[in-house]
């Protein structure tokens, strides 16, 4: 009977060892899958952040170009206003001469 107990104890110990080995293997496989999934998610996140960064850089470049265009328009407006003022002055002078020539 003692050999029966020893065999049943031995089978129980072997079963526990096998169950532990399977559990460790499953945990390792699960961790490996989790790591792969996390790496995939991080890669996706990095790509999206790079795209956002590129978009921001394009917007900055567009803003610089717009500032330059606005400055050019301001300069042109100033010249037009000066020309307009000069033209009004000449017209006023011509009208004054016209009134002096009337009898």
Mean pLDDT: 90
Sheet bearing the most strands, described? Answer: none
Briefly note the structural class of the backbone.
Answer: mainly alpha
Helix percent reads over 70%
Specify the overall morphology: rod-shaped
What is the end-to-end distance?
A: 151 Å
Contiguous runs where pLDDT drops below 50 for at least 5 residues: none
Oligomer: single chain
Which sequence of SSEs, written as H and E, runs from N to C? H
Number of helices: 1
- What proportion strand? under 5%
Q: How many whole angstroms does the radius of gyration measure?
A: 44 Å
Number of DSSP strand runs: 0
What features would you highlight for this structure?
single chain; 103 residues; rod-shaped
Short description:
Helix content is about 95%, strand content about 0%. It is mainly alpha-helical and about 100 residues long. It is rod-shaped, with a radius of gyration of 44 Å.
Question: How does the SSE layout of this entry go?
Answer:
Elements: H1 2-101
What does this molecule look like?
The chain is mainly alpha-helical and 103 residues long. Helices cover 97% and strands 0% of the residues. The protein is rod-shaped.
